[in-house]
């Protein structure tokens, strides 16, 4: 039954299989994540039209629900319509504050994530490579790790001279733990034979670290960085909403307080785009620096 | 002293400590390996032949006794003691050439000289043209060739091989065995070869050392009387060789 079916639709199915294969490959290489945002893929017209129609119908339903002030589970009377959001966007995109907020958020992410990556990789390697450092550092990691970065907000404000610094600190905390844990895990997984081979080729402990242990852990480290980037955005937005003066999280929260409901959604979508771009950048860099792992 | 790569194994005990418990694998083993010789270690799995090889390579410290290379006790692994493992141990993030030049560069040989050495040994093992391939792009046999080249590029006194061709098909195996013999003849490196295959041991080596699992020591040493001028196939088919093989198998099952 199935076989004859396949035969009859052979052409179409082959095409499907081809498209699926392509999308699978894209996903495997981590590009699915960035692409899922815009639904762009070269998978033929069909694969482009259907998602497009889906999104358009979604927008139409949203428009209809808000216009009729529907009250089914959710109260749509307070929710801005897609057209309203679009108009808000056009108004906001020409203002300097919108771009300034984006600049501040990106600046904080870049700074906190860079520090978090350096510190995270350093601690992760230390944990995995030196048993004495592991005994010293591991208890702190185990105590701090379960505390979500947001729980640090009050303490961070007290600890740091400016709120700007406290937000960067909270963002750093969000980024650092996934990076530490994944780096540690990667270093632990280094096969003993690779280390033995390097030692038998005359490598000392430092050489083994830089030529075997760290290269081996790089795929794990990049996974940690991708997770850390997500966690960093999470922490950044919490920080900005609670104590910020600039930043896209502050923009979104302020829009709520100023009853500019269209801007809330503009803020949310902006956050989504920024976070997609930064995560995509990590996967892009990963493919550039570890071609051998592909 | 004639040449480098002379190994004295003196009353060595090897084993694993777990807590207070000591499990001895090799018991009071003594053996002399002449510079430039080719010796096979065979024995049932678990007899400790691989542990002994790792100890010669400096990766295990003997519980007692000592292993001496050219008058100096072996305490740590080093460039003198090249090892080819059963598992693939090429660095996956380095190309064939980068793998092969790794040893020379650790010794402080400059990039250009290391590259030249690498090219030389890549050619010796028959991998010319694959210098810039990553290990996973190579077949299993080619990876073994690259590993041999990497170990030899250090110009080690001793080449230790731990069942290096165990996972290969018969044809690939024979071709690598032939390559190994010609490499040995051209480099005069002392080779210690661990295998569980009697045919392989007899085909390759001058001496076959049989290790007994029961006693954890040498149960017999058989000289193969190999003649270099004789073709390998003829040597393997000869009555003497068949007799050697029978004796080896007898000793192994004893």
Describe this structure in words.
The complex is a heterodimer of chains A (294) and B (254). Chain A is mainly alpha-helical and 294 residues long. Chain A folds into two domains: 2-79, no CATH class; 85-293, MetI-like fold, CATH 1.10.3720.10. Chain A has 13 helices and two strands; from the N terminus they run ααααββααααααααα. A two-stranded antiparallel sheet of chain A has the order 1-2. In chain A, a hairpin with a 1-residue loop joins strand 1 and strand 2 (74-75). In chain A, helix 6 packs across helix 12. Chain A starts with a helix and ends in a 5-residue tail after the last helix. Chain B has 254 residues and is an alpha/beta fold. Chain B has a domain at 91-155. In chain B, 36% of the residues lie in helices and 26% in strands. Chain B contains nine helices and ten strands. Chain B has helices at residues 49-56, 96-100, 102-106, 111-124, 140-152, 170-187, 198-204, 232-237, 239-253; strands spanning 7-18, 21-33, 38-42, 64-69, 72-73, 81-84, 158-162, 190-195, 207-212, 217-223. Chain B has a six-stranded mixed sheet with strand order 6-7-8-3-9-10, sandwiched between helices. In chain B, strands 2-1-4-5 form a four-stranded antiparallel sheet, with helices on one face. In chain B, strand 7, helix 6 and strand 8 form a beta-alpha-beta unit. The longest helix of chain B has 18 residues, at 170-187. The two termini of chain B are 36 Å apart. The mean pLDDT of chain B is 88. Chain A binds chain B through residues 191, 193-194, 196-204, 207, 211-212, 215-216, 218, 290-293, and chain B through 54, 57-59, 76-79, 81-83, 85, 87, 89, 91-94, 102-103, 106-107, 134, 136, 150-151, 154.
